[in-house]
Design goal:
Helices cover 38% and strands 22% of the residues. It contains 17 helices and 23 strands. It has a seven-stranded mixed beta sheet, with helices on both faces. Strands 10-9-8-11-12-22 form a six-stranded mixed beta sheet, with helices on both faces. Helix 3 crosses helix 4, helix 3 runs antiparallel to helix 8 and helix 11 crosses helix 12. 52% of the residues are buried.
């Protein structure tokens, strides 16, 4: 059986402890992943620190050349990487291709980083004195990333960090680790020097070692809110910068004037795509007034039409969940919702495929719950599975108040034909990313990704302009070049611009 190693200083690195990596479609163990700890993290940081000495001094042109080559390799090997992701995560190959494309957009953004990194210059701020500023890399930085996007989320981090002159240590999810090593190999083929990008696999011991290591200057994290709070608290206590993105409970509000067929189709895709294992998944549909009955009818039809199967089967629209525990948790949540008074319109529990090869796979079907209230667990918890809850309200204002009262503020959407309603919604809503007739409003790479409230711990979103600022720090230089005959007398008063 294959054992997936760490990648340190440009080469595979073995370890003693391992854990299973499953194929979610069959439920069978398909590989083992090496589990690292403090010693492995230290080895990666040592390699990264040594590489930083030269990489941080490399020219913008050199860094850009590497990123152009890396981008080309991501395109060339997209199919291979997508199938690696599908085999370990369970999502469809098409969905995996999509996450690679969205990650590649950040690489494309870094290819133009020379312009984005330009500083400013102020001439003659005082007699014979000019001021300019520029940004420099931090040093060794690290990323701790989740299972649901094993390519895209890391690609939101390390290209930004590396292109700005830092070196990187990635701790990917141990549930689907192979994508990280594949990307490491692509970086090497793109001409990235050894030690600039490193991968350490593992669980909490590896995470804790990263958070406490004195050689790591900054940590980027995406995961659940409780862990995001732990990462932010622990890493900042050790003097590090932190990006910590947490969980979500994304609402799609549907007004009576919306095209219900259009809205229901997009909400269905947003709720059940990737088996709901997305931080931007639509988990609550807020039906306003007369939209409710018609919307539920169409959502029921579309949920029953979703084609569930193994991710590599042509025509599959939704694959299995990532683990047996995830499957059990989601199905238990549907049962709890029914016991608490929700109407189970579509019940995805107990789904069995007709192919015996997948009898032990971690499959569950789409579930649709109506008449859900804010007191129910199905509304309050981030289920991270293919469960769509419908909450009925009487007005747009009531819908806005409902969304704003939720502790999460990652993404939201409004389906309407009214520009006035859309403008009112986007101005009043307390959510970081908003879609108008768009169910999954993930920004392009030249904008930053990040929610509000419990979806973002601290104040540092990811990629785009905010990512550039996170991975660099400014220097401001005040300059005087006096002629020898014009030397001025030094003063003991505080300097002014007179």
């Amino acid at each position: 059986m294959t054992t997936i190693p760490h990648w340190i200083d440009g080469a595979p690195a073995s370890g003693t402890d391992t854990a299973p990596v499953f194929n979610p479609a069959t439920g069978q163990e398909q590989a083992r992943v090496t589990l690292g700890g403090a010693a492995d993290v230290d080895a990666a940081v040592t390699a990264a620190a040594k590489a930083f000495e030269s990489w941080s001094e490399s020219s913008l042109s050199r860094r850009t050349q590497v990123m152009f080559a890396f981008r080309h390799l991501l395109v060339e090997h997209e199919e291979e990487l997508a199938r690696i992701i599908s085999a370990e995560h369970g999502k469809t190959v098409d969905d995996a291709r999509g996450e690679i494309v969205r990650g590649r957009e950040v690489v494309e953004f870094t290819c133009g980083l020379g312009d984005a990194l330009k500083g400013s210059f102020s001439d003659q701020v005082s007699r014979g004195i000019d001021v300019h500023d520029f940004r420099q890399p931090l040093g060794v930085v690290a990323g701790i990333t989740p299972f649901n996007f094993p390519a895209m989320v890391p690609l939101w981090m390390h290209p930004m960090a590396i292109a700005t002159g830092n070196t990187f240590v990635l701790k990917p999810s141990e549930r689907d680790p192979s994508a990280a090593n594949f990307v490491a190999d692509l970086y090497q083929k793109a001409g990235l020097p050894d030690g600039v990008f490193n991968v350490v696999h593992g669980g909490k011991p590896a995470v804790d070692a990263i958070l406490a290591h004195p050689g790591i200057e900054a940590v980027s994290f995406v995961g659940s809110t409780p862990i995001a709070k732990y990462v932010h608290r622990t890493a900042t206590a050790h003097g590090k910068r932190v990006q910590a993105l947490g969980g979500a409970k994304n609402h799609a509000v549907v007004l009576p004037d919306a095209d219900l067929e259009h809205a229901a189709g997009h909400i269905t895709a947003g709720a059940y795509g990737s088996a709901g294992e997305r931080c931007m998944a639509v988990s609550v549909a807020v039906a306003v007034g007369d939209a409710a009955d018609g919307l539920v009818e169409i959502l029921e039809r579309k949920a029953r039409e979703v084609k569930v199967g193994p991710g590599d089967r042509p025509g599959t629209e939704m694959g299995p969940l990532v683990t047996k525990a995830a499957q059990e948790r989601v199905e238990n949540a549907v049962g709890t919702a029914a016991a608490q008074g929700a109407t189970v319109v579509v019940d995805g529990r107990g789904l069995k495929l007709d192919d015996a090869a997948y009898a032990d796979g971690f499959f569950t079907g789409p579930s649709l719950l109506d008449h859900v209230t804010t007191e129910m667990e199905a509304y309050q918890e981030e289920l991270f599975g293919p469960v769509l809850a419908i909450v009925r309200v009487d007005s747009l204002d009531e819908a806005i108040d409902l969304v704003n009262a939720n502790p999460y503020g990652n993404g939201t959407a409004l389906f309407t034909a009214s520009g006035e309603a859309a403008r009112r919604f986007q101005r009043r809503i307390k959510v970081g990313m908003i879609g108008i007739n768009v169910p999954v409003p993930v920004p392009m790479a030249y904008y930053s990704f990040g929610g509000w409230k419990d979806s973002l711990i601290g104040d540092s979103p990811i990629h785009g302009p905010e990512g550039l600022r996170f991975y660099t720090r400014p220097k401001v230089v005040t300059t005087r070049w006096p002629r020898p005959a014009q030397n001025t007398t030094a003063g003991f008063d505080f300097p002014t611009s007179n």
